[in-house]
Amino acid sequence: MGSAQWKVSWDAMSQDGPPATWRVGIKESKLAFYRNRGHVTKLARVLLIPDVVASPLVIVKGWDRPEKNGCFVYVGKPNKDLRGGDASIEAGPPPGQFFLVFTLPDGTIDEWNWRPASQSDPLMPDGINGEILWPKQTS
Amino acid sequence: MSEVFEGLADKFSPYVEYSQEADAINVYFYPDADYSRRLTDHVTLFISIDTGRLVGCRIKGIAGILEDLPNYINVDDGEIKLRLIFWSFRGSAETPEERSAFNELTQKAGDLVLSP
Description:
The complex is a heterodimer.
Chain A: E1 6-13, E2 21-27, H1 28-36, H2 40-44, H3 49-54, E3 58-61, E4 72-76, E5 81-82, E6 90-91, E7 97-103, E8 109-116, E9 131-134
Chain B: E1 15-19, E2 24-28, E3 34-38, E4 43-48, E5 54-60, H1 62-68, E6 80-81, H2 82-90, H3 96-109, E7 113-114
Antiparallel strand pairs in B: 1-2, 2-5, 3-4, 4-5, 6-7
């Protein structure tokens, strides 16, 4: 797999931290699925992804499932939400929420959405419990 | 980035999206701008930012459910009615909130089917 199969792709911060990067992207089949069903907001929010994966607040290893340990969650806090058909409708970000980008081990992006902060740790999104790869944890 | 929107349908239609690589399905009943809220280890709800209504959900670990379901029900032409998947979670609901959510998901599923 690789960037050839993606309709759109971006440089993302490496799990080892900057300045290293790797490539992540979205398959045409996934975008076409949303286009065919008229899911405007899902597509508009694709435009939030580049900044989040390039400069995440947090990178988490795993999707909270043992078999998905090779996957990653990029966590960011964009200063806006996008909703319109050509991303022309801007709204403020949902208060207190993070924007999450879920990637498969090969960099394919599978899911993206907003998520509230955890009540026990306001610096993390709720329900994201994997190993924090970025920022580097000091022991 | 205009290629993202090329050929966008005029009208939203409810859907079930199956991802074999992610071992998950995404379900949307309505197109509202949403956020996600984790309900259980397997189920994340999609909630409308503006109205608070339930607009869909994500179910993780779907492969095991799909493997087991034919032991309990007849699966026609490989299609599984979405409401049966929600119903399969109903019995394990531990809180009134979970039971209410699964009931609402089951109602909203209508005739949507999953075709893995």
